[in-house]
């Protein structure tokens, strides 16, 4: 097991971070691991991240991390240990009722996204692993990490990169369309306002030519 090696866990977390990254060129990440330089433009869309025609956005997951800490602290008070699977079950309102926290609302996200948030919190040290060794297996439990105290600060934010949702794209398109409509309507108002005054002035002074009819010298 990597946990028994000196830098085994560090290397494992580097691999998890590599898998968590959904936007950066894979070849750049590999080059950085081997202390080499690689230009992402040279990838020519040959890796899975570069070939994706998907836009990304930063998502604030601070409250999600706080909810995870609440669940872990309650479990610790009950002298219960939570594996990553049990933690996610309690977060989703499933599993043993005693592990659920009344103030934690189950997030309306697929389980895959919740797993990514837990992995992100682990990599950022808001959570930490605690191992239990048996004769047949090594079991990993999750506990409150060394950086969890930062979450008590309202100004502290935890963000992670996610795929931009279709709803966000629609909202952006609608906002852009509204801006275009506003510009067009303002242009029409200005055109109608500038076009109406010469007509009034022209009728008030018949017999003169063009726009000179309504202007005073």
UniProtKB/TrEMBL annotation:
Biased composition (Polar residues): 190-205
Protein name as it appears in the record: ATP-dependent DNA helicase RecQ zinc-binding domain-containing protein
Domain ATP-dependent DNA helicase RecQ zinc-binding: from-to ranges: 6-51
Lineage: Eukaryota, Metazoa, Chordata, Craniata, Vertebrata
GO terms for MF: 3'-5' DNA helicase activity
Native organism: Mus musculus (Mouse)
Biased composition, class Basic and acidic residues, residue ranges: 178-189
Region listing for Disordered, in residue ranges: 173-217
GO biological process entries: DNA repair; DNA replication
Chain intervals with Gly residues compositional bias: 208-217
Gene that encodes the chain: Recql
InterPro entries: P-loop_NTPase (IPR027417), RecQ_Zn-bd (IPR032284), WH-like_DNA-bd_sf (IPR036388)
